[in-house]
Amino acid sequence: MGTIGRKIVGMDLNELIDLLNEALADEWLAVYQYWVGAKIAEGRMRPNIVKELEEHQNDELKHANMLADRIVQLGGTPLLHPKDLLEKSGCGYKTPSNSNTVELLKQNIEGEQCAIMAYKKILDKIIGKDSITMNMIRKIMEDEVEHEQDLEDLLNDINLSK
Ligand code: FE
Ligand code: FE
Ligand code: MG
């Protein structure tokens, strides 16, 4: 990759790559959690919720792509083995052992809230040091904020319809 492109990063590259790999792990686990949740969902507003979970699954995969491309650009290697995902992930994986749409929504809201906080932490660390990664994280964060709201809105609708 570009030598100068790397030189303009004003922080330790390995530290930055580690932060991005942690986010990459979170994203992949989120993809699976949304994917399997959409398969097993049952209960109130199932069609609407399945549609939303599938949309978010696609968004999280896009985020994983953005992170992996940036990791490679910085001279790093995206996590190579699935077991690394659980090991490195900051937000972890919440097993959807209850397939009720309300429980799925609650779990996924927690996941989104963890993601927002995790990206905020990364942003605070890289502000003024790497404007390209900053810009990417801001875009991802905008999606996560929207995700949280979408899921909270659905949960609210369910509560109102009781
Ligand atoms: Fe994401
Ligand atoms: Fe999200
Ligand atoms: Mg949405």
Q: Describe the biggest sheet? A: none
| Shape descriptor | elongated
Strand percentage lies at under 5%
* Ligands, ions, cofactors: fe (iii) ion, magnesium ion
Assign the structural class, choosing from mainly alpha, mainly beta, alpha/beta, alpha+beta, or little secondary structure. mainly alpha
Write the layout of secondary structure elements.
Layout: H1 3-7, H2 13-40, H3 46-73, H4 82-88, H5 101-126, H6 131-160
Helix pairs in contact: 2-3, 2-4, 2-5, 3-6, 5-6
The chain binds fe (iii) ion (2 copies) and magnesium ion.
Any key phrases for this structure?
binds magnesium ion, 162 residues, elongated, 6 helices, Ferritin, mainly alpha, binds fe (iii) ion
Can you characterise this structure?
There is one protein chain. With 162 residues, the chain is mainly α. It contains 6 helices and no strands. The protein has helices at residues 3-7, 13-40, 46-73, 82-88, 101-126, 131-160. α2 (13-40) crosses α4 (82-88) and α5 (101-126) runs antiparallel to α6 (131-160). The protein is elongated and about 60 Å long. The mean pLDDT is 97.
Short description:
The protein is an all-alpha fold and 162 residues long.
